[in-house]
Amino acid sequence: MAHTLRIECLVQWLAGLACALTLVGVPTASAQDLPPLGHETVAAELSADVAAALFGADGNLRVVRDTGDVPGWTVTGPDGILLGHVGSTWEIARSVGYSGRPIEMLVAISPTGKILAAELVHHAEPILTLGLSDEDIARFVGAFAGVDLAAPRASAEAAEQSAPDIISRATVSTGVIRDGILRTGRTLAIARGAIDAGRIDRTSFAPTEWDVLVAEGAVAQVRTTRNEAAEALAGAKVPVSPGDGVFLDLWVAIVDPPTIGQNLLGQKLFTRAVGGLGAGEVALFVGSQGIQSHRGTAWKKSHVFDRLAVIQGEKRYTLTDEGYIRVDRLALENAPQMKERSIFQLGDGFDPVAPFRVEVTATRPSADGSDLTHVTAADYHLPETYVLAPPPAPEPLWQTTWRTKRLTVVGVGVMIGVLTLMLFAQEALVARPRLWRGFRYGFLATTLIWLGWGVNGQLSVVQVVAFLQSLLTGFRWETFLIEPVIFTLWSFVALGLLFWGRGVYCGWLCPFGALQELTNVLAQRLGVRQIAVPQAVHERLWTIKYTLFIAILALSFYSMEAAISLAEAEPFKTAISLRMVRAWPFVLFVLVVLAAGLFIERFYCRYICPLGAALAIPAKLKIFDWLHRRPQCGRECRLCEERCTVGAIDRVGRINPNECVLCLRCQVIYNDPGTCPTLLKRARSAEARQAAIEAARAKRETKAPTP
C-alpha cells in the first residue's frame, strides 16, 4: 500500500516535471511587481508623448482609446490625418514568458498594415537584465519596425538577425518576443482594416447579366405589396389603397467588387462611386420601385436618409448624404425598371462580408396622432465569390521551430535512444572496461560539444521553478513547446527518473557535467593530485545544493526576478548557453568552479548544483534498481567507494540514489575479475582449493601399493 502511494506521488511529480520545458535565459525587462494573468494591462494609458515617439511625429497628437474585442489606441495628427494604431501585446496576445508573467510591448502599425515601431514596456524575465544592456533589448524589439503584417514571418527574419548573440542563444526569449509582436500587430491590423482578412475582391472583373447577379445573391431583392402595406398601416389618416400592386420593390447590393459594381453602374460611375471611398468604407447600392420612396425628401434639409437604415449585428447604421450619389440609370440593359437608384457610403466599422439587413420604414400618421410604421427589409450577404480568402495566419511559433529543428530533434532522439539501449544492456558494456571507457568519454564529448555548445541543450533549475510558477499564473503549452530540444530532454528525463533516477541526466546528458568530468580526466592524466574529501565533511556539504534549490524556489514566489538572479549560481548559462561570452564576473565564477573540479571530481555536481538537488528529490522513489552490489561491498571491500565519481557510495557499500550520476564505474569494478577485490579473493580461493585437490590426488597416487 505504501509502495503504491509512493509510485502515485512519483507519477504526479513526473507529469509536472515533464512539462518544465523552457530554455536557460528567456526575455526579460525591469520590473518588480508584475500583474498575473487576468490582471489589467500594464499600459493602461498611452500618452501623446509616447505616441509621438512611436510614430516619429512632432506636434500635438490625438490619442483615442479603442475598446472592444481588440483594444488599443487610434492616433491622429494635429491635422486630423490618421497616423495609425497602437496595441499592447499583453492586452491582445496575452504574451507571457516561461515565468508565467506578462511580457508587454507596444506595437504601432500604419494604416497600410506595417509595423512602424515596437517598444518593450514591461517584463519579468531576468535574462534581459543579467548580461544585456537596455540598448541591446531596445534594438532587438525595435528592429521589428517595417515588418509587413500581410506576410509577417518572412519579413520578421531580418529583425532577428540583428539580435545580440546573448539573445539569439536564448531561443525561447526571442520566440516569445517575436510571436507577441507579430500576433498583436496582425490582430490589430485586421481589426482596424489595415490588412485584408477575408475582405472584398476589388480587382477581379467578369462581364455578367442582371439575372446572374440576382441568382447568385450579389443583388438581393424584397417586395411589399399594397395589400401588405394597407394591412400594416390600417387606421392611417391617409390610408394605403389595397391591391396587388407594388408598395415597395427593394434591391440592395454591395458594389465594391468590379463584377458587381462595374456591371451595374458602368465603368465611369463605378470609378466615381468607389474612388471616393475612404479607408474601411464600402459603397452600397439601393434601388426601389413602387409608391414608397426609399429616399424621401427630408434628407435635403437634415442630410440624413431617415427612411433608410442598415443593421449589422447589434449596430444600426444611419445613411447620410456624405458620399451619396444619385444614379439615373443602370448599365445593364435587362435590369428591371426602378423609380429611384442610389449609392451610399458605409463605414464606422461596417463589415461588408458579414450578413446585414437594409430596412426602409414607411411612416403614416394615424387618426389619434400616433405614427404607424411598416418596415420592408432586405437581407444581404455578399457571396463568397467576391470575398478574398484571408491571408493565412502565421503558423504557431512552436510548430515553426519544431519543423525547422526537426533534424536537431532527431539527433537528440538518437542520443537518447543510444543511451536507453546502453542502460538496458549495461551488463554487456560494464563487463568490458575498455569499451565502457571509450563509450562513456565519447558520449560525454558529444553531450558537451554537440548537445551543449551546438544546439543549446542545457537544462536548468530555472525551468523547474518557471513551470511551477506557470501552474499558478496560467499554464500554456505553446510557451514550453517553443524550444524542441529542451522539451525533448525534459520529457526523457521525467521518464528516466522513474527508471534510473537523476543520474540519467546528470551523468550522461548534462553538458556542464560532461565538461567537469572531461576536464578532470585530463587533469588526472597530467598528474594533478586529487583531494579526498572526508566522508563526514562530504555528506554535510550536500546540504548546500538542497538549500540553494529551496531558496530559489521559495524566492520565486516573492520575486521571480530575484529567484532567477539567485539561480545564477548555475554556471550553465555562461559556460554552455552563452559560450563564455558574458561579463567577467560570470566567466570568473565558471573558471573557479572548473578549477575546483580539477582537484575534486565533479565538484559542482557534488555540492552546489540546485538542478541536481531538484532531480534528486524523487530519486529514491524510482521503481527499478539496476546497480548490483554484493554482501562484501563496504565490509570487505571499499574500492567502489573510493573511485565513485561523486562520492555516492557510503562506508557500508550502499549507493545513495540522491547522489548517484549513473556513471557505471562501480559496475565496471564489480564485474572486473582483475580489479574487484572480492572476485580476486574468490579467484585465489578457487586456485588454492584446486591446488589442494591436486596435491591430495598426487599424495594418494604416491601411497598407492605397487601391484
From TrEMBL:
User: Domain of life, per the record?
Assistant: Bacteria
Domain named FMN-binding: residues: 97-188
Specify where it is mainly localized. membrane
Listed under GO biological process in this entry are:
positive regulation of DNA-templated transcription
Q: Per the record, GO CC terms? A: plasma membrane
Q: Which InterPro entries match?
A: 4Fe4S_Fe-S-bd, FMN-bd, NosR, NosR_regulator
Quote the subcellular location field of this record: Cell membrane
Name of the protein in question? NosR/NirI family nitrite reductase transcriptional regulator
Q: Transmembrane segments in this chain: where? A: 407-429, 441-468, 480-500, 546-567, 583-600
Which positions make up the signal peptide? Answer: 1-31
MF (Gene Ontology): DNA binding; FMN binding
Q: Which UniProt keywords apply?
A: Cell membrane, Membrane, Signal, Transmembrane, Transmembrane helix
